[in-house]
Amino acid sequence: MVTHINVPLLSASTYPDVLLKATPDWLNFLVVAMLFGMQINLRLERHGEVARQLAGEGRRDRALLALKKQKLSEKQLAQLHTLIMNVEETVRLARDEVCDVG
Questions:
Q1: Do 101 and 14 contact (CB within 8 A), yes or no?
Q2: Helix 15-56 and helix 60-101: axis angle, to 10°?
Q3: What is the pLDDT of residues 38-50, one digit of tens each?
Q4: How far is Cα 33 from Cα 87, in angstroms, rounded to an integer?
Q5: Which of 24, 31, 54, 96 ranks highest by number of CB atoms within 10 Å?
Q6: CA angle 83, 88, 94 (to 5 degrees)
Q7: Domain locations in the chain?
Q8: Which H/E stretch holds residue 56?
Q9: What is the DSSP letter of 5?
């Protein structure tokens, strides 16, 4: 039975090193998230165009399906923006903490 687990504590001298090592991961995440956001925006435009075209052809049921897909894409984009804001806030707080400690 394990009664104690050694977990290294981050001191003022090691914390900036850990933060700098993690920064490329954050930057990579933000780049990928922004590219995904661009894809969602393109999907939004396409769903709107398809819905208009189908409605013009009298295919109302298919047009409604395209609008539902557009609504889903809008929700995905909103969730992505929230996630990006949360990551940016986490990075800002971590950097502020490093400045306060160091």
A1: no
A2: 170
A3: 888 999 999 999 9
A4: 11
A5: 54
A6: 125
A7: 33-101
A8: helix 15-56
A9: -
